[in-house]
Design brief:
The protein has about 325 residues and is of the alpha/beta class. About 45% of the residues lie in helices and about 20% in strands.
Length: about 325
């Protein structure tokens, strides 16, 4: 057989095998890596989605919490995992912040991952401890101006969205508050409840029960409009602070994951997030389902990488080691 004919025969023989990869997926449990501690907003969503996918795939979805280093521990683990679709990363827009925040990362966010889908868009809520003598954003600003450095605001890590939002709040209102970072939503929530910090920007999912019970006070939401879950809470703009922020949850696979598998995961995840029982839960969590294509999410991720690098540079936030 001539060399070209032999190569053609080999490639032709391989085609059914490539197609079979997508057809047979998943043939074993899939791990969904979460960069935050158990009990937080992202963990809650990951477990809910994992349960729905397990029903569809007839395979277990194992949620693997790997908090720390601003989400970089989890991202590095997924970057080095085999590109076979059995290890996925569910993370926030904070993943687009890290490349502009750290001097050096053990992975390349642009090259070591395959964007699968933007799962959701979201807002955050500015919450305060009831012990703080501020029942509104305006009262918080007045209090912070009268006591520079006396109010602590918490975040889920240096350079994480709650940190950037806290710094934007300070610069926009001319106030001085002390930043205290934590390793995820759950420990930050506990710090708020214990009075270690007085205010923080938080996803609605993790703090709504505490707002309902009166253990935390909602001062404002970061979206363009009010939350359907808490229509009585004003937007930050309505409260006198021209600050808007919409975040996202996204799903990534290691680079090199077969295209068939990436598309399959995206399509099935897009179906899961709008299932009736999931659709009813999103508002209480502070999210709206999106389910974008891999191409759409890749474009958004690239744009966010560039945007956050510029924000960090312009804000003068020191690069982290």
């Amino acid at each position: 057989m001539k060399p070209l004919s032999r190569l053609f025969a080999i490639l032709t023989a391989m085609l059914p095998c490539v197609h079979a990869i997508g057809q047979d997926y998943p043939a074993r449990p899939v791990r969904m890596v979460v960069p935050f501690a158990a009990g937080g907003a992202v963990d809650t969503v990951a477990r809910a989605l994992g349960q729905k996918l397990a029903e569809t795939w007839k395979q277990p979805i194992v949620v693997d919490n790997r908090p720390g280093a601003g989400g970089n521990i989890a991202a590095d683990h997924v970057a080095k995992a085999p590109g076979d679709g059995y290890t996925l990363l569910i993370t926030t827009q904070g993943f687009a912040i890290s490349p502009g925040l750290y001097r050096k990362l053990p992975f390349d966010a642009s090259k070591d991952f395959a964007p699968v889908t933007q799962l959701t868009s979201s807002f955050v809520v500015l919450v305060a401890s009831p012990q703080l003598q501020a029942a509104s954003v305006r009262e918080l600003i007045v209090l912070a101006r009268s006591r520079p450095g006396a109010i602590n605001y918490g975040s889920t890590g240096i350079g994480a969205p709650p940190h950037l939002l806290g710094e934007l709040l300070k610069s926009t209102t001319g106030t001085d508050m002390l930043h205290v970072p934590y390793k995820g939503d759950a420990p930050l929530t506990q710090a708020l409840l214990a009075g270690e910090v007085q205010v923080a920007f938080m996803p609605l999912a993790g703090v709504l029960p505490h707002i309902r019970s009166g253990r935390l006070r909602a001062l404002g939401v970061s979206g363009k409009g009010r939350s359907a879950t808490m229509p009585e809470v004003p937007t930050l703009t309505e409260a006198g602070v021209p600050l808007e922020f919409t975040g996202w949850l996204g799903l990534f696979a290691p680079a090199g994951t077969p295209r068939d598998i990436v598309i399959q995961i995206q399509r099935e995840m897009a179906t899961v997030i709008v299932a009736r029982d999931m659709r009813d839960r999103w508002p209480a969590w502070g999210y709206e389902p999106v389910g974008s294509t891999p191409e759409q999410f890749a474009a958004k991720f690239a744009a966010d990488l560039a945007m956050y690098t510029k924000v960090i540079r312009d804000s003068g936030i020191p690069l982290q080691d």
